Amino acid sequence: MSANEPAKTVDFIRRIIAEDLAAGKNGGKVTTRFPPEPNGYLHIGHAKSICLNFGIAQENASSICHLRFDDTNPEKENEEYIESIKKDVKWLGFDWKSNLFFASDYFDKLFELAKVLIQNGDAYVCSLSADEIREYRGTLTEPGKNSPDREQSPEVNLDLFLRMRDGEFADGSYTLRAKIDMTSPNINMRDPAIYRIRRATHHQTGDKWCIYPIYDFTHCISDALEAITHSLCTLEFEDHRPLYDWFLDRLQPQLKQHPQQIEFSRLALDYTVVSKRKLIKLVNDGFVAGWDDPRMPTISGLRRRGYTPESIRNFCSRIGITKTPNNVEIGFLEGCLREDLENKALRAMAILKPLKVVIDNYPVDKVEEITAPNHPQNQELGNRTIYMTREVYIDRDDFMEVAPNKKFKRLVTGKEVRLRNSYVIKCEEVIKDPNSGEIVELRCSYDENTLNANPEGRKVKGVIHWVSATQSIKAEIRLYDRLFVNANPEDGGDFLANINPSSLTTLKDCPIESSLVKANSGDTFQFERVGYFSKDPDSTEEQPIFNRAVTLRDSWAKISEPRREQRKR
Ligand code: ATP
Ligand code: MG
Predict the structure, then answer these.
(1) Beta strands 267-269 and 326-328, pairing class
(2) Can you tell me the mean pLDDT for 61-86?
(3) Does 276 participate in catalysis according to the annotation?
(4) Ligand 1 atom index nearest CA of 275
(5) Distance CA 498, CA 422 (A)
(6) Burial of 93 (0-12, 13-18, 19+ CB in 10 A)
(7) DSSP secondary structure code for residue 45 in this structure
(8) Which residue has a Cα nearest atom 25 of ligand 1?
(9) By alpha-carbon position, which residue is closest to atom 2 of ligand 1?
(10) Continuous segment of H or E residues that includes residue 563
(11) I need a surface site. Which of 99, 188, 203, 437 has the fewest CB within 10 A?
(12) What one-character DSSP code corresponds to residue 232?
């Protein structure tokens, strides 16, 4: 998808923005915002919204994008989430500059605006319980019923509202509601709540408030107060747009701004859940090791897995912005990572399934330094030193006593193969465990004239990776697979029932090149012929840990190819 990629078409939101700019609307300015609720870590779906909102700001000289925490649910929010969100947005490569806001910054203002609605007869204090409100609301096919408090005078409403704020009433005993239309076909317009009583300590405002504004009221006003021009959100808010506009229209004299809400479709990835509620469940119930578990679709999980900001940005740019369902194969995300790492990951060698090889004609104590390129194409990435010794490890899968077919270009009894960047060796003898019959060691010989040179008079086609047995270090290697066994984790109704029991395989004591000792946590390498691996932050000097970011090729595509073929037929 790189060289032949079709010219990028501009999405419908960028088109609207370009038209608005051309028409000089909003004083020729564009201001967007990314408005996360700090009730969990950001995930790949959020990355789509971040790349859209911050991307638009980057693309237009007169544009900025705000980071605003939509923090109206103190019980579910906390500082840890706030800090993680800031870190993830920055890591993705975006900058809100001085434009960091909290909806809670506007609690005083929101309170004043709620009073305006009351005074204008556009809001009332309702004494119905939560259950009664639900009952009065009606259904999609039946209209709702008016609250008995609906016709209360503004004076009574104002008095009750102030007393709600002053803590005179129990949680849930009263709500402030917009007075719109209980028969509206749009249920969101059936006198929605504006404020509720909730005695909860807020991470920003402490115990100042015992009433909190509802999202729909807060969001549009926050947008207007920040002079957001284009309020971009996901499609589930389409039915809320009339309410967004209703509040802003009623409060136009006070706000003097009316941002435009535009909806686009949410990203959904197969084999993945992207809902904070479900992700929290995975963390809290111990299905994963934490928010940044490399199997999680969170930004922090993807980072720990070895994803680069570029690969995620590329992914977001390629999936596009539309109103049609945005269900993407996870292989597409992996492809974006592979493509990015192919050019920049340094190469190294590591053995996941070690098989010892003793080269009998190699001097016993010799340690030979060999200079190996860090990247086969890009010389600018420099070289490293690898060490050839009499004993080395190769991967068990790279040896067979008898070649199963002509395609097997690895080591076979009595035949030769090249050790990558080193000599050609020949397998002379296979040593087996006398009891189990398992191959425990290979005795080989080497041709000393084959370092950087072809062997004389014969062709050796196979090249395998290897690591010195004495000059290597041992690492723990973690192999990750899909977290769910079903493309749609909701199949059958319970996503927890579809968890893949073998989504993590841990390999201990894998020999890896000693040059990897110096790697920093987060550095990602291509372990030649194996895959891309990223050094885990839990690594210690004695125990480096590497996470498999992605395999070299899409092995899933191979499996699903025949199935796709079948479907076509
Ligand atoms: P979740 O369903 O994970 O709880 P949310 O919408 O409640 O998501 P917010 O913190 O409110 O989470 O989201 C912040 C912004 O990110 C919103 O504008 C929201 O529309 C957007 N967003 C969330 N999930 C996705 C997604 N899957 N695809 C695109 N945008 C998303
Ligand atoms: Mg939300």
Answers:
(1) parallel
(2) 97
(3) yes
(4) 3
(5) 46
(6) middle
(7) H
(8) 45
(9) 275
(10) helix 555-568
(11) 437
(12) E
Cα 275 to Cα 288: distance, rounded to the nearest angstrom: 15
DSSP H helices in 23-61: 44-59
Active site residue 37: yes
**Atom 10 of ligand 1 has which residue's CA nearest to it?**
36
The ligand 1 atom at the shortest distance from the C-alpha of residue 268 is 27
pLDDT tens for 105-136 read 999 999 999 999 999 999 999 999 999 999 99
Provide the token pair at 489: 């984790």
Q: Would you say residue 564 has pLDDT above 50? A: no
User: pTM of the entire structure?
Assistant: 0.94
Give the tokens for residue 516.
């990897």
Number of Cβ within 10 Å of residue 376's Cβ equals 10
Query: 36 CA distance to ligand 1 centroid (A)?
Result: 7
Ligand with an atom nearest the CA of residue 44: 1
Q: Which single residue is written with the structure tokens 């503004």?
A: 154
Which residues contact ligand 1 via a Cβ below 6 A?
35-37, 45-46, 48-49, 70, 233-234, 266-267, 274-276
Active site residue 266: yes
Per the CB < 8 A criterion, the answer to whether 441 and 358 are in contact is yes
DSSP track, 114-155: HHHHHHTTSEEEE---HHHHHHHH--SSS-----TTTT--HH
Taking residues 316-343, report their average pLDDT.
97
Ligand 1, residue 274: give the atom nearest the CA. Answer: 3
The residue contributing the CA closest to ligand 1 atom 15 is: 36
Mean pLDDT of 182-190: 98
Q: Report the distance separating Cα 464 and Cα 427, nearest Å.
A: 13
Which residue has a Cα nearest atom 26 of ligand 1? Answer: 45
Q: What is the CATH class of 117-214? A: alpha beta
Given CATH 2.40.240.10, say whether it is the number of domain 473-568: yes
Q: Which CATH code for domain 354-470?
A: 2.40.240.10
Query: Where do the domains of the chain lie?
Result: 117-214, 354-470, 473-568
**How far apart, in whole angstroms, are the C-alpha atoms of residue 44 and residue 282?**
16
**359's tokens:** 């080269």
Which residue is catalytic, options 14, 25, 29, 37? 37
